[in-house]
Design a protein that fits this description.
Blueprint (H helix, E strand, L loop, with lengths): L1 H4 L10 E2 L2 H7 L8 E4 L4 E6 L5 E6 L8 H11 L10 E5 L6 E5 L7 H4 L2 H5 L3 H21 L3 E3 L8 E3 L5 E3 L6 E3 L6 E2 L7 H4 L5 E2 L7 H8 L6 H4 L5 H24 L1
Parallel strand pairs: 1-5
Antiparallel strand pairs: 2-3, 3-4, 4-6, 5-6, 7-10, 8-9, 11-12
Helix pairs in contact: 6-10, 8-10
Length: 261
């Protein structure tokens, strides 16, 4: 019943309820050649509508650990959000027992395609890395300070930071995000969430401000957090200092922007 309620356009006027036939045709029947990747939700496909518009289609797989709750959460939260550094949800499809989410297509894929690849890292000069950190910071600032509610993403990682044609970052995947009223300071989310690297050292209780931007340090070091090199005794103190410097730079940018309003 809750899935069916999503189709009410009056509830989500900014989202389109797509027909399954249109989405199937746009992806060439979910052809493997159009498959962009696969996450916890399921496979993601590139689609192209008859008018030439390119989209990304997330299709809930039968074996997905994420189900109806995450699908509804993604739609209801993302429908309320509009920011240049958040991925744009165009609509959804719940026909023929399918659960599909349709987004604007990001031609430069996700940040992890660059951070953890030797060729990709060479394309991320420091100015571009700082630009990405600032964009992610602005997106988080909007979620936690300037939107109507306080929203904690809870699974912020490089693969959930998408890059548009100008390498501007867009925070994506709000399936396990949680919403707080502005007067709330703490809430129990009910379960430990996120990937292994995200939930390592965390507990299920978190409040506003709980997103840990490990992706920022990854941008500086070129390494995933909590990986084997830390256990091998690699000295990352210098990396940490440089990361703090970039974060401080981002905070100064935020303060300047806030002061200009």
């Amino acid at each position: 019943m809750r899935i069916m309620a999503l189709a009410k356009k009056s509830q989500y006027p900014n989202l389109q309820d797509f027909s399954f036939a249109v989405i199937k045709a746009s992806t060439d029947s979910f052809s493997s050649k159009n498959k962009l990747g696969e996450g916890g939700f399921g496979p993601v496909y590139k689609g192209k509508f008859a008018d030439g518009q390119e989209v990304a289609v997330k299709r809930l797989s039968e074996s997905s650990k994420q189900g109806q709750e995450e699908f509804i959460n993604e739609v209801t939260l993302t429908a309320k959000l509009q920011h240049v550094n958040l991925v744009r949800l165009l609509g959804f499809c719940t026909k023929k027992e399918e659960k599909l989410l349709i987004y604007g297509y990001m031609p430069n894929k996700s940040l992890d395609c660059y951070l953890y690849d030797q060729v990709g890292q060479a394309l991320l000069e420091w100015e571009k890395r700082v630009h990405i950190i600032e964009g992610v910071t602005q997106g988080l600032l909007y979620l936690q300070e300037y939107s109507r509610f306080t929203i904690i993403h809870r699974d912020l990682k490089a693969s959930n930071i998408l890059l548009d044609n100008e390498m501007r970052p867009k925070i994506a995947d709000f399936g396990i995000a949680r919403l707080f009223r502005k007067d709330e300071h703490e809430a129990n989310t009910g379960r430990i969430v996120g990937t292994d690297s995200e939930r390592n050292g965390r507990c299920a209780t978190s409040g506003p401000g709980g997103d840990a931007p490990d992706a920022e340090i990854d941008l500086v070091t070129g390494h995933r957090q909590h990986r084997a090199e830390a256990r091998k005794g690699v000295d990352r103190s210098d990396h940490g200092i440089r990361a703090l410097g970039l974060r401080r730079h981002s905070r100064q940018c935020r303060c300047r922007q806030h002061g200009s309003h």
